[in-house]
Amino acid sequence: MVKKIYENAISNWPEEERPREKLILRGPEVLSNAELLAILLRVGVKGQSAVDLARSILQKLGNLRALDRWEPEELAKIHGLSLAKVAQIKAAIELGKRILAERKKTLGRVYSSRQVFEYLLPGMRDLKREIFKTLYLNSRNEIIREATVGVGTINSSAIYPREILSQAYRVGAAAVVFAHNHPSGGTTPSSEDRRVTRELVVAGEAVQVTVLDHLIIGENCFFSFADEGFIDRYRQEYRQFMQRE
User: Residue 138 is part of a domain; what is its CATH number?
Assistant: First the structure.
């Protein structure tokens, strides 16, 4: 029996092999990365189906995360990717991040640095610039607000520790957790990271807001100032200083 050779256009494929139909009938988890991307691309280019185009794009990028990491203008330089298609891809990625963040929020509480890391990682891992975030927690360790309070190289003059902590009263927070990313992927704290953390702890003591931790988020790893004992050390140093005054 001679096997039928299908043309490149997905519309010429058997219905059960088309990405959209396969997703509806069998669920998105059965689709390959290229098939999922093809659904967002919708159409291919001359000589390539949307799936073929998706495969060539992923081969060029090396991995899926590059779709998030690359700027729109960079992606639009790839053959077959218009700015409209890039916008669709970026929107889908952002929706995925927000769904994951909402899922984490519905868990309610964060009790450890690992839980904070898992909550923040999707939105901070592939950023090209440092951002500084504050999580405001209530007395049950539930996240009641997440705020980005600094963009670019982190230093105390850029993030205004007392002003950040004063927001805790406005949102009814009992404690805060800070985090910033290292675009290099490493998590070793710099001398500036240590200095800023000390100032944050001191400011927290001054306004009677508990600073629970400061995380540095890298490539699938993190550094916790609380786990390493720095938060308690800075707090004790401040309290001893105040007792001497």
Answer: 3.40.140.10
